[in-house]
Specification:
Strand content of chain B: 25-35%
Strand order of the largest sheet of chain A: 1-10-3-8-6-5
Distance between the termini of chain A: 23 Å
Number of domains of chain A: 1
Helix content of chain B: 10-25%
Largest interface: A-B, 60 and 61 residues
Largest sheet of chain B: 6 strands, antiparallel
Oligomer: heterodimer
Number of domains of chain B: 1
Shape of chain A: globular
Chain lengths: 220, 273
């Protein structure tokens, strides 16, 4: 009888080290360690997921949309995109994407910008800026620390003439992205509550976040 | 997870309102905006000038700029890209916000007649004159690392370090440095999202004027754009003139060109009340 050789299980829901169900319109934050993989799942489809990253041991180093776009010479986030910090360091790398279109040029909604975009009557609606403020405050940060973010699953084409508009999301229920952390990071999410444009199909829905440890090296 | 979906009727009402805003934003405003400002730049009336600063290639400068004042940025002999940052002088947590600026105005193409927003839904600047129509709000500035790749073996200055210095001397830190606007950088995006320079970097003699719509601290860095094709590091001096602007007329272009700008100025008025 030959020896049984155990092999590393591939990633599945069952062997995730963290599994978070995030209600519609709610914020979330958590630490992703170097080597871990975070999956962000658009469970119902057409849901923008506003996301920021901070270096876990020094929050003044954080996601930079301009460094990320400049480093890859292109505007949209996709597989292979290196998520860059304001110090030009790679924070995470996007390793999987079942959707194909993610924005980092259009920022997060706020009560204040809603008044400008959609009229003063939309001021008193919950917004990503408020989610971000509540969540970063838990970590000792303030509005000064909220920078232009990534909008996973938000479809914001920019035309050669500069025209920019938020159009219907192309994500289907269960679409996901995965990112491998290159440093320990704090991930801060606002599950976007916007109902004044198509970024959430005018109907914000719950999302799911899963984290896996790095697979052990073969033969280890 | 239990979740109640919104009704089709509610969704339809919100979609209809969005599409009305979108139609106005995409179709009306570009037609209402004028051609770029003529060259050469007319002189600034010396009686209105508060200060004129020549900023050498590779360097930075900042200034107080009060509401109703303006800055003229003269590019001089050309090939200079000028990175712009700004903070509300009374609350530096309110700052330049380019993602809102683009999103709110339905365009990344900022030119004469457009406005530049803070993160608080208020207008910081009106772009009252602009000969180039070529500004980049997406790519950011140079860093020590990008310069080391581009200009190997050369001692250079870069925009990231300039902004650390500029902010540091104001009592601010890297937490406070917003994403930057690159003036005089004709970056366009192709259908795949890739950045390209549209034509040559810029024309000698290009200029822009920005009127302050709140009291601000404004900062500048004068370094080559990351896409500058020149393999030699040789940024040229620029001149920044701070002056008292004419009071805006009732039909002022930047204040009336779009519904979004009108609402932004309504937010400014509340802050100033």
């Amino acid at each position: 009888m030959s020896d049984f050789i155990q092999t590393a299980a591939s990633r599945s829901i069952d062997n995730a080290v963290q599994d978070h169900l995030i209600p519609a319109e709610a914020p979330w934050s958590g630490i992703v360690r170097k080597g871990q993989t975070i999956r962000i799942e658009d469970s119902y489809g057409q849901q923008a997921i506003d996301t920021l990253f901070y270096r876990a041991d020094d929050f003044t180093e954080r996601y930079s949309n301009q460094d990320t776009m400049r480093a890859q010479g292109a505007a949209y986030i996709g597989v292979g995109t290196r998520i860059m910090s304001n110090e030009g360091n790679v924070m995470l790398v996007m390793s999987a994407d079942s959707c194909g279109r993610h924005d980092t040029s259009a920022g997060a909604c706020s009560c204040e910008s809603n008044t400008v975009r959609f009229g003063h009557g939309t001021k008193y609606l919950h917004a990503c800026r408020d989610n971000f403020l509540l969540e970063v405050a838990k970590h000792g940060m303030s509005k000064r620390d909220i920078v232009p973010n990534i909008n996973f699953f938000m479809n914001v084409p920019i035309k050669p003439n500069g025209e920019m508009t938020i159009v219907d999301g192309i994500s289907s229920p269960g679409d996901y992205v995965e990112l491998v952390a290159e440093m320990d990071v704090l991930c801060v999410i606002s599950n976007c509550p916007q109902i004044n444009n198509p970024c959430n199909g005018f109907d914000p829905t719950p999302i799911r976040v899963l984290i896996w440890d790095a697979a052990p090296a073969v033969g280890a | 997870m239990k979740h109640t979906r919104r009704s089709p009727q509610e969704i339809a009402v919100n979609r209809q309102r969005y599409e009305e805003h979108q139609k106005k934003g995409l179709e009306f405003a570009p037609k209402a905006l004028p051609a770029p400002s003529p060259m050469p730049a007319p002189p600034v009336d010396p009686a209105t000038v508060i200060h004129a600063e020549e900023v050498p290639g590779g360097w930075y400068w900042s200034t107080l700029l009060r509401r109703g004042e303006a800055i003229r940025i003269d590019q001089g002999e050309g090939r200079s890209t000028v990175a712009l940052v700004a903070w509300n002088a009374n609350d530096t947590s309110e700052r330049l916000n380019l993602v809102d600026t683009a999103k709110v105005q339905w365009t990344t193409a900022l030119g004469k007649g457009r406005v530049i927003f803070s993160d608080m839904g208020r207008v910081m600047f009106s772009l009252t004159e602009d000969s180039s129509g070529a500004h980049d709000c997406l790519m950011g500035g140079s860093t020590a690392a990008t310069n080391a790749v581009k200009y190997p073996g050369t001692s250079t200055r870069n925009t990231r370090d300039n902004l650390i210095l500029l902010a540091g001397k104001l009592g601010l830190t890297r937490r406070d440095i917003p994403a930057i606007l690159n003036l005089f950088a004709p970056v366009r995006i192709d259908d795949a999202g890739a950045f390209q320079l549209r034509g040559k970097l810029s024309n000698s003699g290009d200029y822009a004027e920005l009127r302050a719509e709140m009291d601000m601290i404004v900062g500048f860095s004068n370094c080559p754009h990351p896409l500058d094709p020149d393999p030699i590091y040789q940024p040229k001096p620029i001149t920044i003139t701070r002056f008292r602007a004419a009071a805006p007329a009732a039909d002022d272009l930047a204040r009336t060109a779009t519904a979004e700008a009108v609402r932004g100025f309504e937010n400014n008025a509340l802050m100033l009340a």
